[in-house]
Write a structure and sequence with these properties.
Number of strands: 33
Number of helices: 15
Radius of gyration: 25 Å
Keywords: Cytoplasm, GTP-binding, Nucleotide-binding, Protein biosynthesis
Strand order of the largest sheet: 28-25-27-26-30-31-29-32
Shape: elongated
Subcellular location: Cytoplasm
Largest sheet: 8 strands, antiparallel
Helix content: 25-40%
Distance between the termini: 34 Å
Oligomer: single chain
Domain Tr-type G: 9-278
Pfam families: EF-G_D2, GTP_EFTU, RF3_C
Strand content: 25-35%
Structural class: alpha+beta
Bound molecules: guanosine-5'-diphosphate
Protein name: Peptide chain release factor 3
Length: 528
Amino acid sequence: MSDHLRETRRRRTFAIISHPDAGKTTLTEKLLLFGGAIQMAGSVKGRKAARHATSDWMALEKERGISVTSSVMQFPYEGRIVNLLDTPGHADFGEDTYRVLTAVDSALMVIDVAKGVEERTIKLMEVCRLRDTPIMSFINKLDREGKNPIDLLDEVESVLGIQCAPVTWPIGMGQRLKGVVHLITGEVHLFEPGRNFTRQDSTIFASLDDPELAKRIGEAALAEVRDELELVQGASHPFDLEAYLAGKQTPVFFGSAVNNFGVQLLLDFFVEHAPSPKPRATTGREVDPVEETFSGFVFKIQANMDPQHRDRVAFLRVCSGRFDAGMKVMQTRTGKEVKLANALTFMASDRDIVETAYPGDVIGIHNHGTISIGDSFSQGETLAFTGIPNFAPELFRRARLRDPLKLKQLQKGLAQLSEEGATQFFRPLLGNELILGAVGSLQFDVVAYRLKDEYNVDAQFDQAQIATARWVHCDDPKKLDEFKEKNIMNLALDAAGELVYLAPTRVNLQLAQERAPAVRFSATREHA
Ligand code: GDP
């Protein structure tokens, strides 16, 4: 097997999806711990809180703190290379999450045993379904009382519309939690708070029939789990690799992340069965990861990752070939050749200079405003990856400066922050207003705060009379000119210089569409 094929096959690139508070951060930390990427529990959380402990904007900053410090975490485990991509926690950052999910090959869903399937999990699941992303599930907080596990699996099946295949099964719950049975190997792993860090640090019985086990957990607990398993085996599905890979079935694990419990069983199963990088669609053809020539796309941009260095980093997922430091690639959108020097890799929390990277890996490229979300890079052939859209914002505000002399900084700040994709920045063709669009209102607060913090600009955002935006295209230049002339009041350019129609009302949009049948109005902008 060639190096390239071997390296590609051992990549596991995934994201954790969950409703806030289900335990995503804790589980992330435990996975890093088992992967040897961090030494001590508490460091992911510590970073999350420490960065701006004095800020009035604690809540916001904590949100940002997570995504800033741990956007991508890579660690080796059992001969595999695991790439864990972080998804932002707050509901307002849905678009950002959406795009991260376009860059992974599978997902891990965390569910709180007491709360069951929550609203945000449902939304994230819908996104995964668009690409049939394979999903494994971890039912967390078994050390607390929660829903009956059988009912919970029913809930997942009916609410999320995916088959459940329990791989581990809990023995008791809350105070009575004794351990889990592995339904495929038959092994019983005992729950021992403060332990379970490694296999050596766990008490494991070969099967439920081990006479020593009955002595340890008692006949009653044993009888109860046997009854339950009979029910489960009648009602649920056995693990089916193909159904999992097709996104139709989710293997389910039970545990308690904060107690390390059940996490290693999950991770072992994950690295064994989760998919390695898959082929990806471009406008012309599918690109297979084993192809020798390099290609990839940018799914995320983060400004000012390190406030000391004021850098902006574009996160590129490698889709085929091999990345070598200093290589020259073509940026599809501009047709320009770019030298990728000093790309970053993300070994857990540290950012190191990367020499080589393979399909499934994410590299960070320094961006000086020339790279946008959705940009593709390739060698030789021009390839444009599809499916990484910008969505039309739903909320609009007009930026107002307290100090008019700061206009230049405001423009720069808005343009740079909008590169991250959470907000979109529009300059109307007429006048010199600056309009900001977002999908959630929290974004305006974040932008106002960051403008002050990072660009020293005091700006306020006022309501703008805009209901929605559409990107407009027309193949006939004459008709486009006509359209522009008639609608100049409502037209603007987005940060990438694309023409956008800003509609004051939905009715207005409808009329504009009816009056200009040659013009296409699009609610998403695919970068190509
Ligand atoms: P996130 O918002 O999904 O990232 O959730 P966190 O990892 O921050 O966890 C939310 C809260 O649940 C924190 O207080 C954790 O300590 C707690 N937690 C996480 N895992 C467990 C668990 O297994 N058992 C219990 N009892 N609490 C947990």
